[in-house]
Structure formats: C-alpha cells, structure tokens
Amino acid sequence: MTKTIWAFIIVVVLYLGWLLYQNWAGVRDEHDAQVNNNNQRPAPVAVQGDYLPGLPSGLETSFRTAKDKGTATLREWLKLYGSQVQDPRKAWIELEFCAALARENPAEAKGIFAGVKQRTPPSSPVWPRMKELENTFE
Q1: Contact 82, 89 (CB under 8 A)
Q2: What is the spatial distance between Cα 54 and Cα 116, in angstroms, rounded to a whole number?
C-alpha cells in the first residue's frame, strides 16, 4: 500500500511539473512574439522635400532661384514668402536653410531649428530629417 501511495505521489508531481513547463513555454512564446513584433517596425520612407505639400505653385520658381543663389537670398525669400508656405514643406525648407547656414551663423541656425522642432509633430514626414539634424543643432 505504501508503494502505491508513493507511486501516486510521483505521478502527480510529474504531472504538475509537466503542466508548469507547458505554462512556462506558452509565456516564453508570447514574450518572444511580442519582442519580435516590436523589432519589426516598418522601414522609414525616404522623403524628398521637393514633393512635400505646402508650397504654392507660384512660388516654386522663386524658391529655386533663391536656393541656388545662397543663404542670404534664401533668408530674404523666407522673410518675404515664408508666411505663404505651409508645413510640412516650410519645415523642410527651414531645415535645409539651417543646414546651409550652420557654418556662417550657427546661433541663427539653432534658433530656426528650435522653431521647426517645436511645431513639428512626430507624425510629420519631416520628422526623420529633423532627427538627423538634431545632434548638430542642440
């Protein structure tokens, strides 16, 4: 009779160990699946500033001319027409202006960058470009 009781106890302990292992394996699989889903973010899409909305078509030619002539002309263009340009294109133009201005006047470039960063949400197509330049201007 004692041997039967011990055999029963051993079978119950083995069964409980097997249930515990099954539970642990399920939790491990869920954790691995969650970690894999977090690591599989979509690759960021390369944004080209020339195709962003916000620049009226009548200003496209004058913008290109100002951009080609240098930072002083682009600064004047932004003063004249900046209120007519909308985000995200305005943010992109200002970031490009910051990058060009960084050698000539770093303080002004930092100020412009801070303004762009303040008004640009993470969902903006300009956000990746801003993150690239963040270490330079902060």
Answers
A1: no
A2: 15
Per the structure, the count of domains in the chain is: 2
Say which amino acid occupies 122. P
The candidate with the shortest Cα–Cα distance to 92, out of 51, 37, 138, is: 51
Query: What are the residues whose beta carbons fall under 8 Å from the beta carbon of 63, sequence distance 6 or more?
Result: 55, 77, 81, 93
**Residue ranges making up the domain that contains 83:** 49-137
Q: pTM surpassing 0.70?
A: no
CA distance 86 to 36: 38
**Per-residue pLDDT tens over the stretch 17-47:** 888 888 888 888 888 777 776 666 555 556 6
Quote the CA–CA distance of 37 and 16 in Å, as a whole number.
Answer: 32
Distance of alpha carbon 89 from alpha carbon 51, whole angstroms: 8
| Same domain? 4 vs 72 | no
